[in-house]
Fold this sequence. Notes:
The chain has helices spanning 2-35, 65-81, 102-112, 142-146, 187-204, and strands at residues 39-44, 55-61, 85-88, 116-124, 157-167, 172-183.
Amino acid sequence: MDIFFSEKAWGQDVKAARFYFVLVFVMISLMHSCAHKASQSVWINDAYSDVPLDNILVISIDKSLLNKKLLEDEFVRQLHDRGIRAVAGYTVFEYYDEILDERLIIDKVRELEMEAVLIARLADTSEVEAYKGPINPYRSDIYRYYSDCCVTISLGYNILIETKIFNAKYDTLIWSSLTEAVFDVSPEITIKAYIPIIVEDLLQKGMI
Length: 208
C-alpha cells in the first residue's frame, strides 16, 4: 500500500512538472513574439548615391561597456553575414570606456580605410523627441553626434535604438533610424531581436 501511494504521488509530481514546463514555455514564447514587434522611423539622404557600402566602422554609445560590445558585435555579425566588411569599435580603440577624442576617430577611420561610420545607441523614449529627421543633414558630423553621450536604460521601459550612418570621407549623415523596442528581458535579447530589423531596412534601401 505504501508503494502504491508513493507511485501515485510520484505520478502527480510528474504531471505537475509537465504542466509547469508547458506554462513556462508558453510564457517565454509570448515574450519572444512580443519582443519582435517594432516601430521604425527612417530617414535617408537622397542626395547621396555612393552605395552600397562595403566598409563600415561600428561605434556604440552607452555608459555600459557591456552594452557597447553587445551592440557592436551584433551589428558586425549581421553585416558580415551580408558580405560587408565591418569592424567593432571596441576592437580597435583603447580606453573604450571613455569618450574618444575626435582625432582618434578620424585617424582610425583613415587607417582602416573605412567608407562609413555607423553609430548606434540605446535611448529611453523620454530622451528622444519625435523623429523628423535632421533639419540640415550636412551639418550633422560624426563627432558631434558621437560626443552627445549617453543615457542609461532600465528594465521595463520602451526604448529606442537610434542608428546613424555617416560617410567617412565627407563627414555627412547619409542614413538614420529610430527603432522602438521593449526592454523587458535583457540587453542581449533586445539587441539581437531588433538589429536584424535595422539591417534589413539598410538592405532594402540599397545601403548595403
